[in-house]
Amino acid sequence: MESGNEHATTYQYHAEDKVLLAVDCIIFGFDQEDLKILLIKRGFEPEKGKWSLVGGFLKKEETLEDAATRILKSYTGLDDIYMEQVDTFSEVNRDPVERTVSTAYYALINIKEHSISNKQFSANWFSVSKAPHLIFDHDKMVQHALRRLRNRAATEPIGFDLLPEKFTMRQLQKLYEAIWDTQFDKRNFINKIHAMNILDKLAEKDMTTSRKGSFLYKFDAEKSKAQNDKSFDFKG
Amino acid sequence: MESGNEHATTYQYHAEDKVLLAVDCIIFGFDQEDLKILLIKRGFEPEKGKWSLVGGFLKKEETLEDAATRILKSYTGLDDIYMEQVDTFSEVNRDPVERTVSTAYYALINIKEHSISNKQFSANWFSVSKAPHLIFDHDKMVQHALRRLRNRAATEPIGFDLLPEKFTMRQLQKLYEAIWDTQFDKRNFINKIHAMNILDKLAEKDMTTSRKGSFLYKFDAEKSKAQNDKSFDFKG
DNA sequence: TCAAAAGTGTTGACCCTACACCCATGG
DNA sequence: CCATGGGTGTAGGGTCAACACTTTTGA
Question: What is the CATH number of domain A163-231?
Answer without folding.
Answer: 1.10.10.10
